[in-house]
Amino acid sequence: MKKYIERRGYLDKLQLYRDEGIIKVVTGLRRSGKSTLLELFRYRLHESGIDPSQTQSYNFERPEDALNKLWSDLYFEIKSKLQVGKRNYVFLDEVQNIAEFEKLVDGLFVTPDVDVYITGSNANLLSSELATLLSGRYIEISILPFSFAEYLELRGIDTTNRYLNYEAFFFDYVNETSMPKGIELREKGFDVVYEYLEALYVTIIEKDITKRRRINDKRAFGNIVKFAASNIGSQLSPSSISKSLKADNQSIYYETVERYLEYLVESFVFYRVNRFDIKGKKQLATQEKYYIIDPGLLNILLGRTRRADRGHILENVVYLELLRRGCKVWTGTMRNVEIDFTVKNKTGDMEYYQVAWEISTPETEAREFGSLEKIKDNYPKFLLTTDSFPQSRDGIIHRNVFEWLMER
Fold first, then answer.
1. DSSP 8-state code for residue 45
2. CA-wise closest residue to 261 among 229, 294, 306
3. How far apart, in Å, are the Cα atoms of 388 and each of 173, 310, 335?
4. Which H or E run includes 293?
5. Mind listing the pLDDT tens digit for each residue in 295-314?
């Protein structure tokens, strides 16, 4: 198995904004591939003729790069190594580990002939002073773990085989992990993958959330995480979660639930999806849905097979794929009708998506097609299922979801 594959879309986006006077901010879950992405891009620079002396790279999870260093120490250290009269490229990995990092980034940004690239494992990175200080001067690139297509490529699967059993590989994908290192470890057995995910989860929870946010009631926080994981793809609110936990003899206040959910979203463990009023063309502020960054983490949180909830798992995978394709995603609502995803694609056009595991009965067919049929505008409408022989009707495009996931 290859150690990694090129994240072509992400690399191309970095190349697009190279030397454009814009800071490149790569965000995403810990261990999702941010460091590897910068490493690959730096290698691309060297291949294009940039001398290695013109690039500097710091990983602030390494003690030798971060320990006892002030932002000003790093600033002057980096400046002392700049190649005068040449273009310089500076890569700052996990920059949020440096106190007042925004001053370091801003100082480098205003230095002539310096192109700055930074990564961070917390969405709060861009709601800090950095966003205010550098308003309009940065582009965020949010990186996700491997897609289903990338997963198969990493495993060396011949996807040109028309008889390929995508369903079996899909269950491997969601039962194991989409995390780069986890896929690399799969040849050592599921137990090794599980141990890796468990260690990763503990690191995220302990280092990125409970310690950083000074959460004392770890049991309550763990219950919130498990509740969200048990209800992916379902409408949730802090009050409904609080009431459900209270009914189970776990008293957690509404405000606490709201705060804990925010921490999970900030750390990219879950993605929050707002509702969209299709008729009124406006975003709604209640009853959001939550999707997990990697379905493999459900093994750690819930300890059960993914086949038990395959419909919501598939919906989760489709949501993440829409994000990879540059879409803005909401859940849709209209006159008590719920649409899984209302999407603005990267060209700015609207699309609607309904996701179901299969259409096995007339009732299922009527329900899944019926929701889309009630939308009377002319934007494209898609029904994605695992059915081998999809049947489009009434302008609704019915597609095999595995074929859709394999598209580049």
1. H
2. 229
3. 19, 17, 32
4. none
5. 999 999 987 655 568 999 99
The H-assigned helical ranges of 59-186 are: 63-66, 71-81, 101-109, 129-133, 148-154, 166-175, 180-185
Query: What is the SS3 assignment for 43?
Result: helix
The Cα–Cα gap between 149 and 169 comes to 10
* Predicted TM-score (pTM) of this structure: 0.91
What is the distance between the alpha carbons of residues 104 and 76, in angstroms, rounded to a whole number?
A: 9
Helix or strand run (H / E) with residue 67: none
At 60-119, the pLDDT tens digits run 999 999 999 999 999 999 999 999 999 999 999 999 889 889 899 999 999 999 999 999
Query: For residue 337, which amino acid is it?
Result: V
Topology of the domain comprising 8-142: Rossmann fold (3.40.50)
- Which H/E stretch holds residue 341? strand 337-344
DSSP category for residue 152: H
Q: Where in the chain is CATH 3.40.50.300?
A: 8-142
